[in-house]
Automatic annotation (TrEMBL):
<feature type="transmembrane region" description="Helical">
    <location>
        <begin position="65"/>
        <end position="88"/>
    </location>
</feature>
<dbReference type="InterPro" id="IPR023271">
    <property type="entry name" value="Aquaporin-like"/>
</dbReference>
<dbReference type="Pfam" id="PF01226">
    <property type="entry name" value="Form_Nir_trans"/>
</dbReference>
<comment type="similarity">
    <text>Belongs to the FNT transporter (TC 1.A.16) family.</text>
</comment>
<feature type="transmembrane region" description="Helical">
    <location>
        <begin position="238"/>
        <end position="266"/>
    </location>
</feature>
<protein>
    <submittedName>
        <fullName>Formate transporter</fullName>
    </submittedName>
</protein>
<keyword id="KW-0812">Transmembrane</keyword>
<keyword id="KW-0472">Membrane</keyword>
<dbReference type="GO" id="GO:0005886">
    <property type="term" value="C:plasma membrane"/>
</dbReference>
<feature type="transmembrane region" description="Helical">
    <location>
        <begin position="109"/>
        <end position="130"/>
    </location>
</feature>
<feature type="transmembrane region" description="Helical">
    <location>
        <begin position="191"/>
        <end position="218"/>
    </location>
</feature>
<feature type="transmembrane region" description="Helical">
    <location>
        <begin position="160"/>
        <end position="179"/>
    </location>
</feature>
<feature type="transmembrane region" description="Helical">
    <location>
        <begin position="21"/>
        <end position="45"/>
    </location>
</feature>
<dbReference type="InterPro" id="IPR000292">
    <property type="entry name" value="For/NO2_transpt"/>
</dbReference>
<keyword id="KW-1133">Transmembrane helix</keyword>
<dbReference type="GO" id="GO:0015499">
    <property type="term" value="F:formate transmembrane transporter activity"/>
</dbReference>
Amino acid sequence: MHDYKTNFQNAMQFGMNKAKLEWWRILIMGFLGGVYIAIAFYGFVKVTSLFSVITDGALSIRPEGRIAAAAVFPVGILFVLFLGAAVFNGDNLAFLGCLKKESKFRSLLLRWSIVLFANFLGGLVMAYVFHWAAAWNENDLLVIKGIIEGKLYNARGGEWHQIFFSSIVSNIVIVGAIWSSMASKNAVGKILIVWLPIFLLAIAGFNHIPVNLSIYTIGLAEFPTVAASNYGSMWAAIFIYNTLLPTLIGNWISGALILPSLYYVLVNFRSSKNKYIAKFCSLEYIHDGNITNAFCEPGEELNAQAETEAQKAIENKPFIFSLYDKIKNRKRKK
């Protein structure tokens, strides 16, 4: 099992790989990501529908239905991880490359825009595939209509900020799940690590931009059957501003800024005193010929960066090396 520092390096490599992908690869992987999330949402709706009860034209869902539906939804993220697709949320980790100055922020914005558009495109294609396949029954469409109305109400009646803060929590869960999965090298471990947080996300109903895009595209494909009451043909425009926009901003803030930045600071920054001690202690290893141990904290694994940092210590702080020799000679005299 990796500690958080080792797993941070895994996340850093994951993010930098994302930042280096060609635009057409991002487009294809993002399209596939949209397809997989749409399939997961299809399963979510189908299971929810099985536990639905219609009374006087109104749809109600039994409590166990929400649990069962939430248990199905993680399939989408698992497909993304194991089949090599991309969703906007996971690609937010590319910001780690920007923090390390390995990629430019402008380039990341372009890549995020491409993957977001590709997620939308994948969801749109699947929405019409479901429509042409007559994949939805009457209960399914009532469930979808209820979800759309609920999101519009939360955004307008419950105010815009509720969607926004829900989205911040959502991407902490999603990026946290993807990040945590890097600590495991076997498939079963990754499945368990991802499934539990995404199950939590689905049962809590937090807002996730690829899922909301799937809901939006299905609403477009099935209009006017699932048109939200009181909104008519305007529901699509209202949904963009009041649901998709705050979801996008909230997801980006937590997935690209909060988690990556906090862990970057936690792993990479030391106090000036600790830096001095680390450089001084590293010279003992250099002096004894064990240069790769330099700059390794207790319990840390050896890494290639240790040698580079130790060499810098000799070049930039020669007086420390002299001081080390003096101290060692005094000990010998005693």
